[in-house]
GntR family transcriptional regulator
Amino acid sequence: MSRASDRAYNLIRGMILSGELGPGSQLAEEALAVLCDVSRTPIRDALRRLEADLLIRRTGTQRSFVADWSLSDIEDGFELRGMLEAHAARRACQRMDDRALARLRGCNARIRVAIERSEPDVGGFMDANREFHAVVLEQAASRRLSALLGTLVEQPVVRRTAEHYGSDQLWQSWSEHDELIAAFARRDSVWAEAVMQGHIRRAFHTYADAHKGRSGEPRYPVHDNCIQNDGRSGTGPANDDSGRGNAAVARER
């Protein structure tokens, strides 16, 4: 892959994962080329990679849209992640050394600091949580497992699950991490596997509960300069004085 293709891929991927490009949004090659400052060929390469990552979908006419998963799709993703992370925990248990345990304790200490604040620091929680799970995966020492989990963990709904957590859920997550550390310290792989499986399953239920009863509202912000909604939520971007509102928006042709 060319540097231009990599740059376009990383930029568009980042916008999807952050929610700046929302589910169901149409991606216009011409507008993305302007945004990424590349030709349309690297954009096409980037979109093919994003489709392989399950971050976008393409229609029969080759139009590209940010993937919008159903709750059933999301549950499948969490189930797969639960099985894989539980397997990673089991493998890691036999390889966990004192240094790795200290790193896990440090991550969970940062999580505690983040959630003890009067207004919980969700960003701090998410950073420490990602590092905690990364340490477990590192100790599992399986490149194939890392590659498989990389696709699942980088889905937008997984990355933003913590945004739906209230104080009780944040503390529950900390407690489950604490129990995982205890299982690793005991070198009890069955215990570690069971705790990790339940940890991921609970995360799914938190996400699902947060979305019950919601309809007709966009869940994430959209980047008007690069997209056109596919018709499910109403109007497109308004024009502004600079002309950027319409110039970079994908149009039906």
